[in-house]
Write a structure and sequence with these properties.
This protein has helices at 69-74, 131-134, 166-171, 189-201; strands spanning 8-18, 21-28, 40-43, 46-55, 61-68, 85-90, 109-119, 122-128, 142-145, 148-155, 159-164, 182-187. The protein is mainly beta and 202 residues long. The longest helix is centred in the last third of the chain and has 13 residues, at 189-201.
């Protein structure tokens, strides 16, 4: 489980594709002594497992992950390039502060940024979303976008809006996002269960 509060911006250092998927190396600032092999790290919102790691000259960690073809096709990972910046979050520890909302790291689909505009010190984004996922998104509810826990400002049949403050833009990769970009979307876990219960109640 994760909270949607980003703790590092990492770099995709290497991508080795194969018929079964891809092995990637990610360069991050985390201390290697605090990471266990098999640990889960949310990478742009996708829960990936650490399979190997080494300490970098800067004191950080270069770790490896294996990504299946299914994940490559259903998330933005399939379009990652060497040198790309990605949001990271370590798995939530028992007793840790839940600063965002409960995030599983299982991406439901892709949303596409339709518009970005300035709103005072903030930036407002409008995102198009597949209609099958739109029913899970509610005004003032929560979504995880590229791993970031965000509050929904407005909703429509196939779109929703969010607003990002300067701190979030600086501490995540959202400062570089623009219209046309696809992002990983995870809807709120509770919304999924409520929608499922409603189906059986009809």
């Amino acid at each position: 489980m994760f909270t949607g509060i980003i703790t590092d911006i990492a770099t995709v250092a290497q991508i080795d594709a194969s018929s079964s998927g891809a092995r990637m190396k990610i360069d991050c600032a985390y201390d290697m002594q605090t990471i266990d092999l098999g640990a889960s790290i949310a990478s742009d919102g996708c829960c990936l497992t650490v399979t190997d790691m080494e300490k970098t000259s800067s004191g950080g960690t270069l770790y490896s992950v294996d990504v299946a073809n299914e994940t490559l096709s259903c998330t933005t990972i399939g379009s990652w390039k060497q040198g790309q910046k990605i949001n990271l979050e370590r798995a939530m520890a028992v007793g840790a502060e839940l600063g965002g909302h409960i995030v599983t790291g299982h991406v439901d689909g892709l949303a596409t940024i339709a518009e970005r505009k300035t709103d005072g010190d903030a930036q407002r984004f409008t995102l198009k979303v597949p209609e099958k996922l739109a029913k899970y998104i509610a005004q003032k509810g929560s979504v995880a976008l590229n791993g970031v826990s965000l509050t929904v400002n407005e909703v429509g049949r196939d779109y929703f809006g969010i607003s990002l403050i300067p701190h979030t833009l600086k501490m995540t990769t959202w400062g570089d996002r623009a219209a046309g970009d696809a992002v990983n979307l995870e809807v709120d876990l509770l919304a999924r269960y409520v929608a499922r219960l409603n189906e059986f109640g009809k």
